[in-house]
Design a protein that fits this description.
Elements (H helix, E strand, L loop, with lengths): L3 H11 L4 E2 L2 H6 L13 E3 L4 H14 L3 E4 L16 E4 L6 E5 L4 E4 L5 H9 L3 E2 L12 H7 L6 H4 L6 E7 L5 E5 L11 H5 L8 E8 L1 E2 L3 E9 L2 H13 L6 E6 H11 L8 E9 L1 H17 L4 E5 L2 H12 L1 H4 L6 E8 L5 H15 L2 E7 L4 E8 L4 H20 L18 H4 L2 H14 L19
Parallel strand pairs: 2-4, 3-4
Antiparallel strand pairs: 1-2, 5-6, 6-10, 7-11, 8-9, 8-10, 12-14, 12-15, 13-14, 13-17, 16-18, 17-18
């Protein structure tokens, strides 16, 4: 319970203007993209690691939950204050502290919006590849906490591949520095990797040292249409088998295409499936790779292959791709968005299996996503006010996870466990592995104050 004396102390730490207890403000920090709101008791906007440290020390002393929050764009409930307490919003901490072009690194604060950071480094001819669909709103700190991916992961990897070091406040309040500013470093345990992807349960990120690479000279985007999504899925596998690694390789099924066309009017072909492929590098290499990709697509019964280097056309295509998730609500008022991953060679079997699950459960399931690295976003559409559809949707999710694990995949590639996947954790992880993770959590957070109820909730229940 947040008492008046505690409110006074929070205002003293962060400043009167940077702490709020009004219901209107609390509501704004009660939810993420899962739309499962739980009101916190306070929200604070610290301006430094030291202020965050003081709040965590007070939380340990008095005993109240603390929930770190970036922009609240997550899909697993990671920033939802399920046990009340104090939300720490990092939105004031948004500085680019340093861009070192000689050593290809940058030092930034956690509240910096990913898109804003990318624009700044690209002015210097540098490149920060991680590109989650929410990149124009999500923050670097949130991306690190969830180890966000995105379309470019097929070639460039995910957020953890660009985090060299961190400054973080541990749950007990100590501020630590992890990692290095150098290309190599193996001194002690890799705490940087431990904190990256820990969903705000092991520490609050207060600064990040990020790896940069040179900006590619040329980009070519290819739109490929198919009459049968199974042909599109096989093409994905065949492109990689041909030893071509595009910078992006996205798949969209007919449900996704029709919804986004009604929503965004992007001029996408209304066929059974579309691949959106991008290659980058030198002008010579992109032209050569685009030609090889076209050959593979045509061998797999592609109806049309259209390549473009026009910036506006490319922007429109990517705006359409990023609008799919929102557009699906035209079909049903509710959806369960899962981000499963399978080996690329298993994508055709996954796509067929998901279609069969939809038919068997009497539900429409839309599939799209980062096919190049086997990461498919499976969206189960339903109306939760209809008890029959609600039950069918929950059963369909378990069916999809069963299928994924049979194909040697994982139930989450980007979104994390949070609260939405907690009930399914033991489908993928052994009891011994789960217990080892709990022990790490208990050592770093003995009072259990940091982001409680996530990953290992007291009563794990799906969605």
């Amino acid at each position: 319970m947040i008492t008046e004396s505690l409110k006074t102390e929070l205002k003293r730490i962060v400043g009167v203007k940077n702490a709020s207890f009004s219901k209107e403000d609390l509501l704004c920090y009660s939810y993420d993209a899962t739309n499962s709101p739980v009101l916190p008791e306070a929200v604070v906007f610290p301006g430094s690691a030291e202020e965050i440290s003081l709040i965590l020390k007070m939380a340990n002393s008095i005993g109240f939950p603390v929930i770190p929050r970036g922009a609240g764009t997550g899909f697993s409930g990671g920033s939802v204050p399920v046990e009340g307490g104090v939300v720490i919003s990092t939105e004031r901490m948004k500085k680019i502290i340093e861009i070192d072009a000689d050593n290809l690194i940058a030092v930034v604060e956690p509240g910096l919006v990913t898109w804003d950071f990318q624009q700044e480094v690209e002015k210097l001819g540098l490149f920060y590849p991680p590109d989650p669909s929410s990149l124009k709103f999500s923050t670097i700190g949130g991306n690190i906490a969830e180890c966000a991916g995105g379309p470019r992961a097929v070639k460039y990897g995910v957020t953890r591949d660009y985090v060299l070091g961190l400054e973080a406040a541990l749950p007990t309040g100590e501020i630590i520095d992890t990692g290095v500013r150098t290309a190599k470093g193996v001194v002690g345990y890799d705490l940087t990797r431990l904190l990256t992807g820990s969903e705000g349960t092991l520490g609050v990120i207060t600064k990040a040292i990020l790896r940069l690479i040179p900006l590619p000279e040329s980009i070519r985007t290819i739109l490929v249409t198919f009459a049968d999504i199974r042909d599109a899925a096989k093409t994905v596998s065949d492109i990689i088998k041909a030893k071509i690694i595009p910078s992006t390789l996205e798949i969209m099924d007919s449900v996704s295409i029709r919804c986004v066309e009604e929503y965004a009017k992007a001029g996408l072909p209304l066929e059974a499936a579309v691949l959106l492929i991008e290659v980058d590098g030198s002008p010579e290499s992109t032209g050569k790779e685009a030609g090889r990709i076209e050959k593979v697509c045509l061998e797999n019964k592609a109806l049309e292959v259209v390549a473009s280097s026009d910036k506006k056309e490319i922007k429109d295509l990517w705006n359409a791709r990023r609008a799919i998730s929102a557009s699906l609500f035209r079909i049903k008022p509710n959806k369960i968005n899962e981000d499963i991953v399978v080996p690329r060679s298993s994508i055709p079997e996954l796509i067929s299996g998901v279609q069969e699950i939809g038919k068997r459960r009497g539900l429409l399931i839309a599939s799209f996503g980062h096919a190049g690295d086997g990461n498919i976003h499976v969206n189960v559409m339903y109306d939760k006010k209809d008890p029959g559809e609600d039950d069918a949707a929950q059963s369909a999710v378990r069916d999809v996870f069963d299928l994924t694990l049979r194909l040697k995949g994982t139930i989450s590639g980007e979104h994390g466990v949070g609260i939405t996947k907690a009930g399914y954790l033991n489908m993928e992880l052994s009891p011994a592995a789960i217990e080892a993770m709990k022990r790490i959590k208990n050592v770093l957070d003995p009072k259990g104050i940091l982001n409680p109820g996530k990953i290992f909730p007291k009563s794990a229940a799906p969605h």
